[in-house]
Amino acid sequence: MFIAYLKARDFPGADMARKFLQMGWTRARRYANHKGGRKYDAKTGKELPRIVDSEKAAAAAIFYERYVAAREHPQYRRLKEAHQNKHERK
Fold first, then answer.
1. In Å, what is the CA distance from 57 to each residue of 22, 36, 51, 65?
2. What is the pTM of this model?
3. How far apart, in Å, do the first and last CA atoms of the chain sit?
4. What pLDDT is attached to residue 21?
5. In Å, what is the CA distance from 33 to each residue of 18, 25, 30, 64, 68?
6. Residues 6 or more apart from 82 whose CB is under 8 A from it?
7. pLDDT score for 37
8. Cβ distance 63 to 21 under 8 Å?
9. Residue whose C-alpha is closest to residue 77's, from 66, 89, 68, 64
10. Rounded to whole angstroms, how far apart are CA atoms 69 and 86?
11. Rounded Cα–Cα distance for residues 21 and 70 (Å)
């Protein structure tokens, strides 16, 4: 989807696709570090012990790789700069 948005010169779409990759990475890391995705105990508020789920950590690594590739993609960076110049910088 990210590449399709770039081909269409659709920066908002490409940016949302990049954000979904970033979310995939952060959520996969959360589940890799904490069983069930819970970082804190609901009753005590204390941080639960970390576990390492290698399968989920591998998924997080894939998401991270794709997220960085999207973030650093030359066409994405050009579209982002053009968008910022038009809408955010005055």
1. 14, 14, 11, 12
2. 0.83
3. 31
4. 97
5. 23, 12, 5, 15, 21
6. 11
7. 84
8. yes
9. 68
10. 24
11. 8
pLDDT tens-place string over residues 26-50: 999 999 998 888 889 899 999 888 8
For residue 43, give Cα distances in angstroms to 33, 37, 48. Answer: 20, 16, 11
- The span from the CA of 54 to the CA of 77, in Å, is 33
- Listed in sequence order, the residues at least 6 apart from 76 whose beta carbon sits closer than 8 Å to its beta carbon are 2, 6, 11, 14, 15, 18, 70
- 57: Cα separation from own chain's centroid: 14
CB of 67 within 8 A of CB of 26?
no
Reported as a single tens digit per residue, the pLDDT across 55-88 is: 999 999 999 999 999 999 999 999 999 999 998 8
